[in-house]
Amino acid sequence: MLRELASGVPYGTVVGYQKLAARVGEPGAARAVGAAMGSNPLPVVVPCHRVVERDGGIGGFGGGLETKRALLALEGILPPPLF
Description:
By secondary structure, the chain is mostly helical. The chain has helices spanning 2-8, 17-23, 30-38, 65-74, and strands at residues 15-16, 51-52.
């Protein structure tokens, strides 16, 4: 799962938890994807901030939601924060 995220979700793109689970052959394992992202030991190398909720929410992030928002803004996925 982490390998697919590292190689299959390029800079400036996102993938949903459920879609990532399906890409690794486990379509019903969206919660397992979330758990794997939460225990990611190398968030700089394996960009778990690029995994988002399918309803448009940004989901969680071990480094905090403000950090996730800033990383997504840096990649052009979200608008930059106003302040």
